[in-house]
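Exercise 7.
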Amino acid sequence: MAYPAMVLFDYGNTIIEETICGFDQGNEVLLSLAAANPNHITLSAFQPKVEEIIFGMSANMGCPNRFYQPYEISWQSIYRYVFEYFGISFDQSYEELEEIYWNAATSGQPARHIQELLTFLQEQHIRTGVVSNIMLKEQTLCRRIERLLPDHHFEFIIASSAYAFRKPQTALFELALRKAGLPAEKVWFCGDNPICDIEGAAQAGLQPVWYRKTYKATADLAMKLPPDQYLAIDDWSELIEIIRRKKEKP
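Solution. The predicted structure, written as tokens, is:
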């Protein structure tokens, strides 16, 4: 395990802890903003249609479960379809609607000790970036990160919605390596999802760091990767100490 030249992070429940206020709440706010709803569509009709499409994607792609879904479909394409299907229109742009929905459906705060870790990495001249599976536009993700972690020094923020591929497919990891201009063995990847983040990073040759904050072992999340092939931490302060020790004893 080489000393890192760069540390990449997942977004949700990795650098930012998200609280789900309710996806139905996000949809209800959107419906309340409709400029035209000629068929008087309510949440009870709208919500099942959205869920039918989103939860059907993995099955339609032949995935064993949603964590292995190889391709991303953007929030805007799904919601544009559903709104037009029901004849609902808005005065706001879809980019504005997307952010309104996200802010109503979830709230976020920086993960414990993540800012201390990012400051430490900056001081050690270790580069950082973000690679996220997310249906929302890259610009929407960037605005939330800027608001919640204004002192970050991420060189780039990659959202799956902008590139069609999702982790654990290696494409997004390979894109990040190309952007960084670094070989895989010099890059560590930190995330909370054992399939998308840890197995995905390992398949791409990066050093995986499992932030065990969100997911517990289940049938859907049975990681095949041996424990000696990844680091496991429960708090970002632990990673500071791991890197510090690695620098002192390469």
